[in-house]
Amino acid sequence: MAGHDNPQPTLEIKKLRFTYPGIDGHPPPGSTPLIDDLSLTLFPGDRCLLVGSNGAGKTTILKIIGGKHMVEQDMMDVSAEKMIFGVAGINPQRRDELIKVLGIDLSWRMHKVSDGQRRRVQICMGLLKPFKVLLLDKITVNLDVLARADLL
């Protein structure tokens, strides 16, 4: 991985263990974990390629990172602040304005927030760098009425 000027990781996963829950919300007794003992630390500017066969858990890992699958808090921690401030080469004033307009709380934990809050962070990250042309599809999906009005 590249040298790190900022010692704070953007993403940190420690001994992640994941089994799909049963109908009661808990893994069925005796079920084998899909992911077992995964640790990963990424710093701003790092790139990571997930490689594996079909069904190995690549998409599941991305869903866990994105907060779509819940895991124990001590296994993974990604804050909105780490995600937004982890984007290199951006204008700080633009970043601060996006955070304000989208009503983002930098202390949000991405694995705990609502779909609308998660979407706000995703929109912010997508708009951090200026574009000559930026095509967005369904940008206001999962946003509440007030957030939608502020964004537009």
TrEMBL record:
- Superkingdom is Eukaryota
**Regions that span the bilayer:** none
**InterPro entries, per this entry?**
ABC_transporter-like_ATP-bd, P-loop_NTPase
What keywords were assigned to this record? ATP-binding, Nucleotide-binding
Per UniProt, residues of the ABC transporter domain are: 36-81
Tell me a Gene Ontology molecular-function term this record carries.
ATP binding
PANTHER family to which the protein is assigned, alphabetical: ABC TRANSPORTER FAMILY PROTEIN (PTHR43158:SF12), SKFA PEPTIDE EXPORT ATP-BINDING PROTEIN SKFE (PTHR43158)
Protein name in the entry: ABC transporter I family member 20
Q: Say which species the protein is native to.
A: Striga hermonthica (Purple witchweed)
